[in-house]
Amino acid sequence: MTASCSMVDFNTGLLEFLYSSPTAFHATKNIAGKLLAASFIPLYEGDIWQLEPGKRYLVMRNDSSIIAFVYGKSPLLDSGIRMLGAHTDSPCLKVKPRAELNRRGYFQLGVEVYGGALLAPWYDRDLSMAGRVTYRDQSDQIASALVDFERPVAVVPSLAIHLDREANNARSINAQKDIVPLLLQLPAEDAALPDFRGLLHAELLRQQPDLAIKQVLDYEISLYDTQPPAIIGFEQDFIASARLDNLLSCFIGLQALLEADDQVSSLLICTDHEEVGSASCCGAKGPMLQQFLERLLPDGETRARVIERSMMISADNAHGIHPNFMDKHDENHGPLLNRGPVIKVNANQRYATTSETSAFFRLLCEAAEVPVQEFVARTDMGCGSTIGPVVASEVGVKTIDVGSPTFAMHSIRELAGARDGWYLYKAAVEFFSYSKAPFALISRS
């Protein structure tokens, strides 16, 4: 099937999605909005489900993970399920529960580092805050709402070079002391601190005046860079943005699923907490996907047979070979930006790719007229991982790990090729329209 979205239109939509998704909660809300606009039917986990072939569904968990399912008209035992997985979270700074600090009359917030963040780029950025706020309403019921301050409200100033002459040679960053955001200057050093929950309360009412908030009880708030995503480079070769890892893959999966063939069954799952191990009720190591499949196929034997006929593409960004640090890559496995999606391989199962899943993906790319690359880490260096091995081990589905090559992964502003997301989207469209069980071509003699 030919992808309908041009590269220009794809990247325009991608930049809008990145800009409007400062947290996993906002990303999930935006994905759900696109699906609802395309007539996907919302499901609620506490309800009884009656799923029907030919219809499209979505279900969310924790406001930060989502499954979208195209229930194809072809029997599941004939075609299996085409699955594509990504994750909604990104490394960041998260505000602590008792965050208020007064340091010499400056109001600051204590933060935790979420995931394996590259900390140095957080300095001297115009930062805002966004996330989920849970409150007591006027009827003393608990409710939640999303908030996004949008405007720059915080900064982490660097220490001047005059006070740290070794800053360019041997500077280390203490996450407890050195990366504390500054919000405002108090009228006096001994002045009372603003109540952060009160600030959240006021901001929610400013944005949603009809919200019946009696008391803010708790929150999950992250800081983010307000600089918008952009197409950059002398020839517009690159996309620069926060959260490319891994909202780029979420957007790829979403756009491809919106074009999925109604004859076969396709599933998109975007889960939270990958950056901290996926071990949560809404993470890939949790039961969300398994429980969805159990409700779709209550009979265990039928479910096992369908899973055997299915395949998962785990999409997460790959490390492009950095021209300033080429020795950090294996000499034969340094993916280039704008040269196509990367098949990620690791002998120790940090990636779930097998020869069969990679062979099938190569056929998809060939059919979509998309170039393909490979990544293997240097044998003397460690290797990252993603949701692929987790889903493969929890569900038992054959899986491949792929991704768009990226620079500055886990920085506050990452860099990807302007063509690579579109390339992977084209391959995903081909995947979601493949009419047979993915491994029907493989001889088992």
UniProtKB/TrEMBL annotation:
**Keywords for this protein:** Aminopeptidase, Hydrolase, Metal-binding, Metalloprotease, Protease, Zinc
Q: Which InterPro entries match?
A: Peptidase_M18, Peptidase_M18_dom2
SUPFAM superfamilies, alphabetized? Aminopeptidase/glucanase lid domain (SSF101821), Zn-dependent exopeptidases (SSF53187)
The protein's required cofactors: Zn(2+)
Give the enzyme class. Answer: hydrolase
Q: Which CDD domains match?
A: M18_DAP (cd05658)
Q: Which Gene3D superfamilies match?
A: Aminopeptidase i, Domain 2, Zn peptidases
MF term (GO), any:
aminopeptidase activity
Task: Determine the domain of life of the protein's source.
Answer: Bacteria
Record carries keyword ATP-binding: no
* Record carries keyword Flavoprotein: no
Q: What is its EC number?
A: 3.4.11.-
Write out the similarity annotation: Belongs to the peptidase M18 family.
Q: What is this protein called?
A: M18 family aminopeptidase
Q: What is the lineage of its organism?
A: Bacteria, Pseudomonadati, Pseudomonadota, Gammaproteobacteria, Cellvibrionales
